[in-house]
Amino acid sequence: MTPRVTVVLPTYNWATVLPFSIGSVLDQTFGDFELLVVGDCCTDESEAVVGAVRDERVRWINLPARVGHQAGPNNEGLRQARGEIVAYLGHDDLWLPRHLELLLESERAFAHGHVVFVMPDEPPTITPARDWSYTHGAWIPPTSVVHRRDAALGVGGWRLPRVTGSLDPEADLWARIAERHGPPALEALATSVKLPAAHRRDVYRDRPHREQSAWLRRIREAGDPERELLAAYADMPVPPPRPVPGIPTRVVRKLRRRFPRILGAPPGTAQDRYRRTRSFKGLDD
């Protein structure tokens, strides 16, 4: 039978985190989905890790040539999706168990939940803030978003950083969907955990998974993780600005003041930011 939801999990040569991200999908209270793990021409053991998952809803796809950005695997997942709703999960991020259940309650073209945002050596925070509302170009983590498949296809799908101007590809796609279908719905509860690779040096070389393991264990041990994690971190003060690869500290400080828990598009082009963060993450070839 055709699933209602297609989950797209883009990945590139970081197989050690896949058991945890995939595990968080299989833990969903809503089970009518297919999971497409889409490799960006992976050459490590990712295919074997996905193949070891004994669940017929999970399928491995590997692009024949590397795109170098999640927009490539996301577009392929969008193309092959059978579900009317598409959801995304970063390979190093995690969902809380009711992520799909809660976001599917919305009747809008796309929706997102609050995110437990985990920076290295800082207390986790919740993004966006409670009084936040969508504005054109706002950055929302793909891990937290679901949308109608036809809404994304109708605006041309994902675009690469070289053509999105000042907006990152995800912010660019959300803006185009919002222009045609209206702003996203925001779920009041926390539904995902994001551990941004852009702030973790050499993760694609070292391929750690300690944080993913610890957070998934915590999620599974919680009685009501969507409420408990929100309550734990919703009022956590935002730490002082810290360096962001490729972005001047003064700019980070300004953005933190304006968007304390969710950033707008930093200055410069998406392509420039993409190039500057590759080395920091250990992705330079």
Explain this structure.
With 285 residues, the protein is an alpha/beta fold. The protein has a single domain (5-281), classed as Alpha-Beta Complex (Spore Coat Polysaccharide Biosynthesis Protein SpsA, Chain A), CATH 3.90.550.10. The chain is built from 11 helices and 9 strands. Strands 1, 2, 3, 4, 5, 6, 7, 8 and 9 form a 9-stranded mixed beta sheet that branches. Strand 2 (33-39), helix 2 and strand 3 form a beta-alpha-beta unit. It is globular and about 40 Å long. The N and C termini lie far apart (42 Å). Residues 254-265 have low confidence and may be disordered.
Summarize the structure.
This protein has a single domain (5-281), classed as Alpha-Beta Complex (Spore Coat Polysaccharide Biosynthesis Protein SpsA, Chain A).
Q: Strand portion, in percent?
A: 15-25%
CATH fold descriptor: Spore Coat Polysaccharide Biosynthesis Protein SpsA, Chain A
Unreliable residue runs: 254-265
Strands, total number: 9
Shape: globular
CATH superfamily, called what?
Spore Coat Polysaccharide Biosynthesis Protein SpsA, Chain A
The CATH first-level class comes to: Alpha Beta
Number of helices: 11
The biggest beta sheet is recorded as: 9 strands, mixed
The overall number of domains is 1
The chain-level mean pLDDT equals 89
How far apart are the first and last residues' alpha carbons, in Å? Answer: 42 Å
Helix content range of the residues, please? 25-40%
Order of helices and strands: EHEHEHEEHEEEHHEHHHHH
Radius of gyration, whole Å: 17 Å
